[in-house]
Specification:
alpha+beta, 3-stranded antiparallel β-sheet, 3 strands, 18% strand
Length: 90
C-alpha cells in the first residue's frame, strides 16, 4: 500500500508544538488554539483536521463548547522530534 505524502506547514508545526507542551490528559480545541494564536478558528480547524487525517493527533472523547478536542499522539510526537532534530542540524 502506498502511503500518502504531505508537508507540514508553519501552522501545523505550531499546533503540534503547543500540543506537545500540554501535560498528560490535556487537550486542545480549535477555539482555544485560535485565541492563543490570534487566528480564526476555522483556519485552526483545517489544520487540526489535516493533522488528524494524517494520524499525528487524536480526537478525545470530550468536547468543549461543541468543538472537538485533540491531543498529540505518539506518531505526532515522533514526527515533531524528527523535524526538530532535522532543523537543529540545518
Amino acid at each position: 500500500m502506498k502511503s500518502e505524502r504531505f508537508k507540514l506547514n508553519r501552522p501545523d508545526l505550531i499546533v503540534l508544538n503547543l500540543a506537545k507542551t500540554l501535560g498528560p490528559g490535556f487537550a486542545l480545541s480549535a477555539p482555544e488554539l485560535a485565541d492563543r494564536l490570534n487566528v480564526r478558528p476555522h483556519k485552526i480547524q483545517e489544520c487540526l483536521d489535516k493533522l488528524s487525517r494524517h494520524s499525528l493527533i487524536d480526537h478525545t472523547t470530550i468536547t468543549t463548547d461543541g468543538h472537538e478536542n485533540y491531543r498529540l499522539n505518539n506518531t505526532g510526537s515522533y514526527v515533531l522530534t524528527m523535524w526538530e532534530q532535522h532543523r537543529a542540524r540545518a
